[in-house]
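Q: Protein A?
A:
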Amino acid sequence: MDFLRWLESIRIPGLNEFMLAVTYLGDEIAFLVVALILFWCVDKRRGYYVLAVGFLGTITSQFMKIWCRVPRPWYQDENFTILEQAREGAGGYSFPSGHTQSSIGTFGGIAVTSKSLVIRALCLAACVLVPFSRMYVGVHTPLDVAIGAVISVVILLVMHPLVLGKEGKYLPYVLAAMTVISVGYVLFLHIYPFPAEVYVYDVLAETTPWESAAKNAYTLLGSLLGFLVVYTADQKWMHFSEKAVWWVQIIKVVLGLVLVLAVKEGLSSLFTNAFGYFPGRAARYFLIVVVAGVVWPLCFPYLNKLSEKKQ
């Protein structure tokens, strides 16, 4: 806490805004955007690598949060203040840092698979700045950040040969294993006799720690089931190409992200009303992944034909 109090003492408006912007690079949306750009336009296997690291890292960090139940810094010291804009993304317990795990998994995965020194430098900068920003805005301690970083580095190393080696032959087993782990995590949340504090509503976070953990668990379960469908479809009959002329790549990214975000945000109430909040969330993220990995790539050949006509 001493280090966080020192950071609190040096906060200034301009730096505050910069750190708040940086911390969003560890958010779900940033992970989704980067992974889909890789998957659609660069290299599917690198996309799977980043996704596998991100999903396994999230399951690991979320399990540790609900198991260790370490309170957020503002509960450890009632006189400590955070930047209020950062509170929305700081539900549940503190240890370890999910944003740190996500940012290092995402940008570290790009760095270790890229040949560009510029891209590597930018990604490594993000790997440093995002964890620091989590401490600066006041939502994590140095220990939270350190363990979040260790989780991602270990998973990056373990997943590299499994996903990128041997022409990706282990990838279906990796996806299947992560899905089984995800199912196990959902069952654990429903079966394990947690102490009463896990179910206590947090007015500041506007949720309970259990609900925060369950939201992530069902999100991961739906996403991983979706990726099993995407991988099977691409291997069996799609075989879509990531390559295209530059302006087609821009169209793929812009319209694809609009489509994915429309499904993500526009169908939220529909799925919640139809299935209930948590099953509805799993179903919605399953659809998001299938739309991103199957439905939208079906349009790529037509976009490529359009570019051929323009030449």
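Q: Protein B?
A:
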Amino acid sequence: IYALLILFPILLTFVFSTQDCFQAYVRFILWNPAYVHAFVQSILIGLAGSCGTILVSVPAAYVFAKVPFRERELIFYLYIIVMLMPFSVTLLPQYMTARWFGIYDSLLSLILPGIFAPMAVFLLTQIMRAFPDMYIEAARLETDSTVYILLHIILPSIKGGVICAWAISFAELWNLVAEPKVLLQTIDKFPLSVLLSQVTIGD
């Protein structure tokens, strides 16, 4: 019931927008190709970055949570410090890195920082720390494969946290405004968030 209350305004908006049999959507697509192109760019950035985030964050979180090694907590605290930094502090290093790797003015300049964002690692580390070690020890009696244990024992139990981390990462990449303006030079490569931020009331 609570989910329906949250979704009701969205459903109501969609119903009102389709009273003319989707003519508004057809006109928008036909007469505003720049916005449609920017929408596709946003989808590519969001999906590539968020899926890459999960691929990187899951094994990193497992190491932080379940693999003891020296300076583990120090490195994890560094992750937290980077996560707490405002984007204005990290924007210049991102620009310099993009120039150095030769990915300036490409979608990779937005996707790669999103893949290695520390938020998902922090979130999944906290979730995996709550996962009982006894299950991992029991699985070790059957196999020595850490990958098998991670994929078949741990991930099915924390899939809710993984989905949450993916959704947060996708939302952050979808809402990028300042980063594309700094890391992209070609207007055709701007995501939808940048174009919408430039819309005025008169438009």
